[in-house]
Amino acid sequence: MRKSNPLEILYALRIANWDLAFATAFGTLVAGNFLAEFIRTLTTDDRMRGWISALPAVLGALQILGGVYAQRFSSYKKFCAMGGFFWRFWWIPIAILPLLPDSFPKIHILIACIAAQAIAIHLIQPTYNAWLGSLVPSSHRGWYFARRIAIATVVGGVIGFPASFLID
Questions:
Q1: Is residue 45 helix, strand or coil?
Q2: Of residues 50, 51, 87, the one with CA closest to residue 66
Q3: Dist CA 61 CA 20 (whole Å)
Q4: Could you tell me if 70 and 79 are in contact, meaning their C-beta atoms sit under 8 angstroms apart?
Q5: Which of 4, 61, 87, 132 could be a cystine partner for 120, CB 3.0 to 4.6 Å?
Q6: Cα–Cα dist 148/59, whole Å
Q7: pTM of this structure
Q8: Predicted pLDDT at 2
Q9: Cβ–Cβ contacts within 10 Å for residue 84, how many?
Q10: CB 114, CB 55: distance < 8 Å
Q11: What letter would DSSP give residue 103?
């Protein structure tokens, strides 16, 4: 395996920050309040709505399994790319659900898709962070990851507030 030069590493970290910004914008628009509102249109059962909303957090325990399973792959990049792809992919059927007739089992499809996307993202999260951590020199990790959190916070706010007003 060849060693990356510092410019390639800086470029990869810049791309990782752009990926974070787009993933945060995407997640802001499809999850949280927006997902809760969509679930409300599918069922009036408060317990079902609560269970569906909590499903991604409950599946967060899979991060432990993901950290172990990732060790079987020769490349962090391949493993993380698969999880990132499937996290986004499983939102496609959810976007199509409003177009389906009421006779379709929409709530069951929604639960399956939410579970699948949560599994995909939780399996790769620890590996993705470990990968980024291995690229950033230890003397700069605090600065880099603080900057990533700031980017996610700003993007989430800039996207989330106007979109919330539109939903209201």
A1: coil
A2: 87
A3: 22
A4: yes
A5: 87
A6: 24
A7: 0.81
A8: 56
A9: 16
A10: yes
A11: T
Rounded CA-CA distance 138/143 in Å is 10
**Structural contact between residues 123 and 65, judged by C-beta atoms closer than 8 angstroms:** yes
Q: How do residues 1-15 score in pLDDT, each as one tens digit?
A: 456 788 888 898 999
| Cβ 11 vs Cβ 141: under 8 Å | no
Q: Contact 29/94 with Cβ under 8 angstroms?
A: no
**Per residue in 115-147, pLDDT tens?**
999 999 999 998 988 888 888 988 999 999 999
Residue 127 burial class via C-beta count within 10 angstroms: exposed 0-12, middle 13-18, buried 19 and up? buried
Q: How many C-beta atoms surround the C-beta of residue 92 within 10 A?
A: 10
DSSP string, 69-97: HGGGSS-HHHHHHHHHHHHHHTHHHHHHG
Mutual angle of helices 106-135 and 76-89, in 10-degree steps: 150
DSSP 22-42: HHHHHHHHHSTHHHHHHHHHH
4 contacts: CB under 8 Å, gap ≥ 6: 12
